[in-house]
Structure formats: C-alpha cells, structure tokens
Amino acid sequence: MSTQLTPILTRFWDDPRSWTLATYEKHDGYKALKKAVTMPPADLVQMTKDSGMRGRGGAGFPTGMKWGFLPPPDGGPRYLVVNADESEPGTCKDTPLMMAAPQLLIEGVVITSFAIGCNHAFIYLRGEVVHVYRRLMRAVEEAYAAGYLGKNILGSGFDLEVTVLAGAGAYICGEETALLDSLEGRRGQPRLKPPFPAVAGLYARPTVVNNVESIASVPAILLHGASWFAGMGTEKSTGFGIFSLSGHVANPGQYEAPLGITLRELLEMAGGMRDPNHKLKFWTPGGSSTPMFTDAHLDVPLDFESVAAAGSMLGTRALQIFDDTVSVVRAVSRWTDFYAHESCGKCTPCREGTFWLKQIMERLEHGNGSQDDIDKLLDICDNILFRSFCALGDASTSCITSAVQYFREEFEAGMHTSAAEMFPPAASTLFAKETVSA
Amino acid sequence: MITDGNPNYGVVPSTGTAAYPADVLASLRADAELTMARYPRARSALLPMLHLVQSVDGYVSLRGIELCADLLGLTAAEVSGVATFYTQFKRHPNGTYTLGVCTNTLCAIMGGDEIWASISEYLGIGHDETTEDGQVTLERIECNAACDYAPVVMANWEFFDNQTPASTKALADDLRSGAPVTPSRGASRVCSFKQVSRVLAGFTDGLADEGVGAGPASLAGLKVARLAKVDDGKAQK
Questions:
Q1: C-alpha to C-alpha distance for A372 and A375, rounded to whole angstroms
Q2: What is the pTM of this model?
Q3: What's the confidence (pLDDT) of residue A154?
C-alpha cells in the first residue's frame, strides 16, 4: 500500500470527551492561535495561499485566494460565515468533526477572523443534528470562558464574537449565497453573482464563506507550516482531507488521507467490499452531485485534477459505494427525487426540469418507460445544465447523464422491466443476511 | 382546508389562534429579544425564533407567525413565506417525537426503504402524519450526514445508526410508551420535539457533555492508521 492515512483533524476523536476544551488543549489546541495573534494578518492570508489548500466544501476554490478577495478595510464590518450545512447526499465528514472535535473549528474560526479582520463570525449548522448543535454551543461557551473568544483575545486587542445558528432543513442553504439569505432570515434562495460574497455578502458587507473542514484545517497549517501542508497530496491538490466511505464496503467510515489516494487503496484499508462475492458496480467520488464512476475508475487519484480529467468532480470526497446487487436506475431515480424536492423554485430550468426528470425516472424504475425516455432525459439534462441559476440544477443532471453513459442498457430495460425485478432490493440491505435466514 | 374565517399563513389546518397566555407571551418575547440580540440585524433571528415558536406550540402556529412579524416589523405573509420554505418548520401540530427514516439513495438501498415500509405499516401512518396518541410523527427524511452508519433513523434529530425494521419498530414502541431511549450518538435520552426546538432556537439544555465523541465508523480510519503505525514500528525493529 503506497499511500498512508494521515490522521490530523481526526487524530484525537477517540479520546474520552474529545469535544471538550481540556482535551483539545492536550492535543496542541489553541497553540496555533497564540502564534497567530503575534503575526501580521496579511501573513496569515499569505500562509493559507502558500499552503495551496482548496476549499473542502465541494467546489475546491483556493481558500487563501477567497480571503485575499476581500476589499481593503473601509472601517465597516467584515464577516466570516462557516458553512456547516452539510447535506450533500453521501457527505458525512463535517458532522462527525463537529460532534467529536468542535474546538478545532472554533480555533480555525478565530484565526481566520483575525486574518481577515472580522469581529463577528457565524457558524450556520443544518438544523437536523441537534447534538452537534449542543456540542458547538458548548465549545463556543468554553472558548469564551477561556478567553479565546470575546474581547481582547489573548491580550492581542482583537475582539471576536461567534454566533452559531441552526438552519431548518433545506439542502439549498449549502449554496453560499442561499446560506447568506437564510442567515438574514429569508427563504434560502441563491443570489445573482456577481457581486460575490467577498464584495457584498452578509448584510451586503465583505464576507468570507468557508466550509467546516477548510476552517478546521487552518490551525494545523499554522502550527506545521504551509510547506508541510503543501508537501502532502499532489502538486495542485495539496494537503489532506477526510474521505467518507459508505455503502457496500466492509468498514464504512471516515478515512483521513492525502489528496490523490485512490479508491482501490481506500477500499483495501476499509476491508474491501462488504461481500467479496459482489463486485463494485458504481460509486460517487464526491457525493450525488458528482458524476458517478465505475470499477474502471478504481485507480483514479482522488485529487481535483485527476477526478476532473476522468469526467467527474472530487466534490466532498463522499464515496458512496454500490455493489452489483444495486439497480443504477433505482439509485438515480431516488437522487432525482431528492433534487426535485430540494429545488428552491427560484429558476425555471431547475424547478420544472427536476420535476420532469423525476417523472421519467419513476417510469423507468417501475419498468414503464417509453421508447424515447432516455433521449428525453438527456435532452432535459441538457436544458438544465449551465442554464440554472445555481449549481443545484447542474448537479441534478450529473447522476443521470453519467449513469446513462455507463449503464445505458439498464435504462433501456426500464422500458419493460422494473428495477426491483432485475435487482431485488433485499439483497442490497445491511441486514440482507438477517432477512434471508429469517 | 379548514380556515375558520381566519387568515391562513400556510398553516394547515389553521388552528391555535387563541392568543398566548400573558406569561407565555412574556417569556416568548423575552427569549426572542435575546435571540435578536445575537445578530447585527434582528431579522437574522427569524429562523431561531420560528424554532422558538415550535418549542411552545409544537408547530409554527398562526399566533407564532404574527408574534414574529410583530417583533421584527415584517408582515405575517413575509414570515410565513420563510416558515413554509424549510422542512423542519411544521405547518400543523407535530407529535412529541419526529421519527425520520432516511430514504435518500444510500440509506434507502442499505435498508431504509424496507424500514420505511415496515414502520409506516406498523404505525398505520404515512409521511408527515402523526399517530393517534399524538406521540410519533413519521417522516421520510433526506440525507442526514451519517451515511457511514446507514441505514439511519433520526428521533427528534438524534442519531440512531445502523437500523433495521425490527429496531425501528422497537424504537417507535419505546417512544410511544415513554420507555427510556438512548441514541447511538447523542444525548443520553431523546428529548421532546418542543424541548429540541428550544435547543435549535439557540438555548442550551446542558446535555452537550452526554454521549460519545465519535461512533465506530467515525473512527474507522484512525483505527487503521494506528494499527499501521504499530506495524511500522515492528518492521523497523
């Protein structure tokens, strides 16, 4: 095995009471902040640029560059907003991070705020994870009590207030401008860009919106150096990231590794497929919004460039693994339900298009498809992709077009045979054996 | 739709129009003021305030909408426009417990569909419907960021990992009978919908230190890395 795992963010998750400040301080917690407040903020921005870290929330935009886009200070407020609205199907890294080690995120928030000149930061958490919210609120409380938040942090003269709020169930709020609208107490619908949040974000003020894992990686970069971070991963996709394996794998879970690791390597670490008699059929490299891969892509390095060159996107490293018991039509049909359900309604291609896609996918799943349904699907996808207001519409087409590309015959079979007949669902379940023996 | 001649701001049916008792109103207003004070602009508190309304009424009631509108200087239509956008804001009285079965693709395939079918039949209710005793509201939920624990069931937004049809029925039975229930990763017990709504409004309940830091799947990679390190050490000797 050539690539080794690199537990950095995950390194102390198995400590008893890993979420407390005391545990975090035992594991170098807030050492980076102590260093940060002695540095010129511009150096912190430069350090993050030098590390080459690209945003860990899916789009992969360089984090340091995002910070650098803020206009020069004009005396008015500037904001940091952490996107903790983890909802992309398959994505399950930020939630365990905030449950096990919320102080990592808080320290990252303080350092980032200091770097960009923000005195009030917000963490927007999805509302459907109440215990994570408890842990975050407690972490903020502890950080205030220890003087890591509040007035004159560590005697530096720097003030920071942090507000953590819970959303209320809307996938679209993971889109950064929809998140800002939601944070302003509105329906979470995306805004026209430009202006980008760096120029006019929260309350139309300069705002940095970053993913949880990006911000949580900042303390480690500061402690060990930009070149240490850039020394991991590949040339253009530097550093480490949490890879989330789920589905038909022996040991699903979180595997923190340098970018560029392959699924073959990860699968080996995770004990292989759930059942050696069933081989890998399809998988998503970065959640349901990234075009699916097959067993032909086991050796694609999981970095931004290699995954893109192979026709997909690294996204959030959400590796959903499906073996050959699974109907790809059923999987895609359900994802399509999801996008139709979560379409915010703002733009026509997405609002109407996902609704049409859903109807066609349902027909095909039940073996009632008609002769021209595949062409119709692709035609609708063509009319949604790059014609929608935001990436949600684009994303809704990824699973369909990639599945038709790799498994067209299954869509053709959907004209006469149901998915359940071809792939009995019971065989795919976690409790498949229980069902069989009962 | 029953409207009783009252305005209906997306609340189905329109119920609960009796004014808040004075003491309830006073504490709601006080809590809402605390919430608004957390933001540079008060309207940012609207989502937390709607959670707060649910913590008292068990759903987003007409009087709750009107209260938020009054406090924020918005129209009731503007507030209901926001409330009806988000799935966690309930438009009719919710049960004491929301039982959510993830039926997004991965969980569905890992058994979520079987769990959904069996629990829906067992309780005799469908999506967003509540048992007659008012205890359990059943929901098909979207991906809840715990795919490595599929299939996942949420009870009032606490994690129940690696569920089966049988375990979910037992969970529903316990919730309905008031027997103690412990989430896989969460507080030591499942709080009521109203209690959880208060937490979601940003008011702590002191339970943050309960439960595990991480479940087994969250530690899977760390475990492999630790073993590899031990092997490396041996190899060097």
A1: 5
A2: 0.97
A3: 97
The answer to whether the bond into A425 is cis (omega within 30° of 0) is no
Model pLDDT, residue A321:
98
Helices and strands, counts by H and E, chain B: 9, 5
Are A259 and A238 contacting, i.e. CB atoms less than 8 angstroms apart? yes
> For domain B97-192, which CATH number applies: 3.30.70.260, 3.40.30.10, 3.40.50.300, 3.30.2350.10?
3.40.30.10
What secondary structure letter does DSSP report for A149? Answer: S
Query: What pLDDT is attached to residue A116?
Result: 98
In chain A, which among 332-391 make CB contacts under 8 A with chain B? 334-335, 338, 341-342, 344
Is A425 at the interface with chain B, CB within 8 A?
yes
Q: How far is CA B184 from CA A92, B154, B206, B237, in A?
A: 16, 10, 19, 41
**What pLDDT digit, counting tens, does each position of A119-142 carry?**
999 999 999 999 999 999 999 999
Which of B110, B153, B159 is the best substitution to test chain A (most A C-beta atoms within 10 A)?
Answer: B110
| Neighbouring residues of B123: CB distance < 8 A, sequence distance ≥ 6 | B131, B136, B138, B172
Position of tokens 């039975």?
A: B173
* ipTM rounded to 2 decimals: 0.96
CA distances A124 to A81, A83, A141, Å, are 7, 6, 17
Instruction: Return the H-helix or E-strand segment holding B200.
Output: helix B193-200
Task: Judge whether residue B1 has pLDDT over 60.
Answer: no
Tell me how many degrees the CA angle B19-B22-B27 measures, rounded to the nearest 5.
110
Q: Quote the minimal CA–CA distance from B213 to chain A in Å.
A: 4
Nearest CA in chain A to B232: A4
Answer whether B213 sits within 8 Å of A18, measured CB to CB: yes
> Quick check: B167 contacting A, CB < 8 Å?
no
Farthest CA pair distance, chain A: 72
Contact assignment for A183 to B44 by CB distance below 8 Å? yes
